[in-house]
Amino acid sequence: MTVLVGAAGLEVRYRTASLVERLRGNQAGFAALDGIDLEVRRGETIGIVGESGSGKSTLARALLRFIAPTRGKVIFEGRDLATLDAGALRKFRCQAQMIFQDPVVALNPRMTVRQCLDEVLYAHGMGERSKRAARIEELLDMVGLPPDLAGRRPSALSGGQCQRVGIARALAVSPQLLIADEATAALDVSIQAQILNLLADLKAQFALTVILISHNLGIVRHVCDRVVVMKDGRIVEQGQTEHVLAQPREAYTRTLISAVPSMARIHAKMQQRAV
pTM of the entire structure? Predict the structure, then answer.
């Protein structure tokens, strides 16, 4: 498989807020990412795991150019994102989309589901109003939501329904790359299984490349081809998921594995294929 997106020597630094640290000579700031080298092949599902603060979400945002790296490159289909002008970057946004952690907060509370989806389609110049309306109905069906839900606001939806709307919004522009940043963390286990099964079905249907950001190796084990383990802004271990989980080299990876009591429960729920 060819490489769809990759990072080379990627570094993201945030200026330290501490005056004491600056007086001590720490002018470089805090390294949220420190020399990340990563390749994501077209059509695979890769899991990026680690504790809170390990740099997972920063990596996701850097790969999508939501934040500019301090050093290094993000390459998408052979092109350095830093070299793209505004027009080319806008086209890139159609190719790479994110599903966010908190499905309720990620949606505008003042907008109906229809307006949330239409906003994306309109912003990217996708058809006249009638065509956009048909596309919205198609998107809702795609994620297993009834068409009459389009007139509701996020406050009238469950967390699982909100996340399905978030997935529909990400798919609206027909991306190649989908990054799910802790997309099931705010949901209970049974709803997690439904959302993960939905993502797996959509990946197969549309030949998506998926990056799943998670702190839960139990989830990653059942949906990801490869796993990348991060700690303190660095990749400490990576490889085929089953191999890494069966024979972890790093003590940190073993600690993450031992901290997943719900692994069997998640597996059982996913096997039920409840949607």
Answer: 0.88
Question: What's the CA gap between 177 and 12, in Å, rounded?
Answer: 22
From the list 5, 105, 114, the residue with the least C-alpha distance to 65 is: 5
Answer yes or no: are the C-beta atoms of 40 and 6 closer than 8 Å: yes
Nearest Cα to Cα of residue 170 among 148, 199, 191? 199
Q: Both tokens of residue 83?
A: 């070299």
217 closest CA partner among 21, 69, 54: 54
CB 34 within 8 A of CB 232: yes
Axis-axis angle for helices 159-171, 189-206 (nearest 10): 20
Q: DSSP readout, 23-60?
A: HTT--S-EEEEEEEEEEEETT-EEEEE--TTSSHHHHH
The tens-digit pLDDT sequence of the chain (275 residues) is 799 999 999 999 887 655 555 566 655 567 899 999 999 999 999 999 999 889 999 999 999 999 999 999 999 999 999 999 988 998 999 999 999 888 888 999 999 999 999 999 999 888 889 999 999 999 999 999 999 999 999 999 999 999 999 999 999 999 999 999 988 887 888 888 899 999 999 999 999 999 999 888 888 988 999 999 999 999 999 999 999 999 999 999 998 888 765 545 555 555 555 44
**Around 197, how many Cα atoms within 13 Å sit in the side-chain half-sphere?**
18
Block residue for tokens 């006249």: 128
**CB atoms closer than 10 angstroms to residue 70:** 17
